[in-house]
Amino acid sequence: MNNVRAAVSLIVVTFLAAMATWTTMRYAPDRPALRVCADPNNLPFSNEAGQGFENVLASLVAAQLNRPLEYTWWAQRRGFIRETLRAGRCDVVMGVPTAFELAATTRPYYRSSYVFVSRARDNLSVLSLDDPRLKKWRVGVQMIGDDFSNSPPAHALSARGAVGNVVGYSVIGDYRQPNPPARIVDAVIAGDIDVAIVWGPLAGYFAARSAIPLIVTAGSPAFDLPFRPYLFDISMGVRREDAKLRDALDRFIVDRHDDIARLLADYHVPHLPLQVHRP
Amino acid sequence: MLLQSPIFSIGLLGGWNGMRRPCAVVLTILAAVACACSPRPSPDATEPAGSRPDAANPVTVPTGVGAGDEWTTSAGDPANTRFSRLDEITRDNVSRLRVAWTFSTGVLGGHEAAPLVVGNTMYLVTPFPNIVFALDLTQPGAPVKWQYDARTVSAARGVACCDVVNRGVAWWNGTIVFNTLDNRTISLDATTGAQRWEATLGDINRGETMTMAPLVAGDLVLVGNSGGEFGVRGWLTALDAATGAQRWRAWSTGPDADVLIGPDFTPFYATDRGRDLGVTTWPPEAWRTGGGTAWGWVSYDPALNLIYYGTGNPGPWNPEQRPGDNKWTAGVFARDAVTGAARWFYQWSPHDLYDHDGVNENVLIDYDGANGLDKVLVHAERNGYIYVLDRVTGRVHSATPFVHITASTGVDTQSGRLLTVKEKEPREGVVIRDICPAAPGAKDWQPMSFSPRTGLMYIPHNNLCMDFEGVEVSYIEGTPYLGANVVYHAGPGGHQGEVTAWDPVGRRAVWKLTEPFPAWSATLATAGDVVFYGTLEGWFKAVDARTGDLLWQFKTGSGIVGQPISYRGPDGHQYVAVFSGVGGWPGSVVVNDLDTRDATAAAGWGGAMRNLRSVTARGGTLYVFRLEGP
Questions:
Q1: ipTM score assigned to the predicted complex
Q2: How far apart are the C-alpha atoms of B329 and B347, rounded to whole Å?
Q3: Which of residues 97-156 of A touch B (CB under 8 A)?
Q4: Is the model's pLDDT at B240 over the cut of 70?
Q5: A17 pLDDT exceeds 60?
Q6: Residues of A with CB below 8 A from B425's CB?
Q7: Are the beta carbons of B159 and B144 closer than 8 angstroms?
């Protein structure tokens, strides 16, 4: 079943990408390029071969704006925005949280959450961060490596007293390997950890491609008070002064809502309904 | 009585290569006065600093201290004094200092390095992409003899946490040795610039970089890594200076075997004794990504055959996720200079809460104490205390605040523990104001100097506090995360920087200068009783070593974050040289054109540096000064 869905999604994606590329070449040879800052090695988001959903999305945007598409490849690191968008090396980042402070953000185009990933055969049925078993199991979370920063589930576990059983996986990882952030899902598959609490898009994509069946469940709560969200709205980001480009991207997000939803579904992105208050 | 200090009598003149005029420097011989105890309250604490007589200076005045005609290691000598024995430039004539020549490196970025002068050649290294220049001092304008481009890979820029700096080259037996941002140590023929060897020691793919200046001890090159904020596991590595072959590597976390802890390890405090503390003072496996990188300074005492260096903060977990002391981070190691075997360790900040790397320089001095000669190291720590440690045993003689501190109440010299203040512990989502000192510490990497003539340490440092203002949403491609919204601001007085002349025996500030921005350059002390330092705005200043009075200043083209040095030129005259080129952690606001409307830009510096861009811009120029002639 998974294989069939994966095959279908690959066809759809390839078609969308091909169509966008064709459109670009056909109509926009002389127009200024849409310059996208992207990670060359970070599926399901992007890679240098154009296989990520952000790659496809960028192709669709370029086609709609009637501009050729160019990439500036830059590894995901602290300083990514500083060295790419703000350094003028490129003009748009395809995915940032809507509340992001380092860029002007478009209206959100999807909302996802942190999810639990476990092996189907273990039948753990973990649904809540308050599950006391999370203090006993080996639980994987991603380490950010920025001072005083953590993924929300990592904060949540330590706030609930789960420390010694928590295993950290660097979100940067070893860049010589493909898609370094995916090691945390590999660790579930390999049996190194019992549960991983992972950002939805990453979990959904790699779980769908796992050799053994995995279960991906959105957890509860959605928020810990006073401010620890597990849900995030995701937008595109541009420089603060590029209001015109942001407006064009906003129009794209509204016009192509259904295409975007299909694209995310093809990549098994666990997503939740957006509640956008339009100005 | 004049006490001979072995540390100062070693090979500091060893760089003398016979090519140059004999050293004409004669140090004033100071009488060392025995003090009742060590440390002891200074009897003349209220006396005006300028009139403090030399006779009260109990610090020994060895003949070899500091640098002579040449400047052969970043700190001037292996004891890290940054003292020049040259005395042509004095308090009385320094006002006649003029630019002799300048040299543009062609690189814009934080120029934190010290130039070296060996024979008649000056050696420079730039920030990324790490170009080494050899300049011929015998020719007018010091033309380039050779240059070497390390071809540092561009991806390394995306890894460095806080600007792509390099803190200098080292010299060994006709070769120049330096580190590259992409984790190579390279040896060049000092005459031709041809590469002798290259050793790859780390991997940028894992967030690791190298920025420190190597130290040569005997025939070993000592180098360490950076990148603790990414969970890089820290190490110090010794390379054969002739071949680049690795002799040993001492990790800062993990099992005793990895840390080179064996039967010779005799730390002074009980909390540092026990089996595999580098594993057991962490949650399971957390030591593997525990930080403790060795990106600062190494000191060397040939008489004791020991090296000293600090380890960086623990990472990358927040404090509540790494219960325990997190050995061997945020402390200082004494190791056998040949084998690397650990002799003792002392932890400045057990279970560090504030990103307080322990890597600042350890200045090795001796003074006459209650029980004879005290061989100590002096260390101005990020946590706000200036420590005097017995460098034979690791015992804390004293730990005295040199800035305003709210995050701790003192150091218990019985247990060695830093006494932290519970209410100032960062906690997720909680607003905490006025944590002093801030994350960059009371003093960051910028090294102090020591004058044996005055017995004073000249400390360039910060006056910064920070607020944790709740939570900020951040994102590394594909992963939203939450971090504290940290904002730095000036401490009491409203200025962000200070230069303090500190009496390590009397444990008091003799004088203190204020600067609007953090004092982010090294200081240089000279036998002419002049202290030099640079400011983030670009002023290069000369002050009276005894009073702090401003004697001379010159505005360079960019902010100064470098290390001033002094040497005697082929013309027989004393020169002073310093890089101008703003950058480093606070200067990254200028270098990277960060948006200062965002107070948290560059990890909290944005707000504090709001005005810096209006007073300086990027640069990369060496300035060399000498007295205007008759």
A1: 0.84
A2: 7
A3: 97, 99-102, 142-152, 154-155
A4: yes
A5: no
A6: none
A7: no
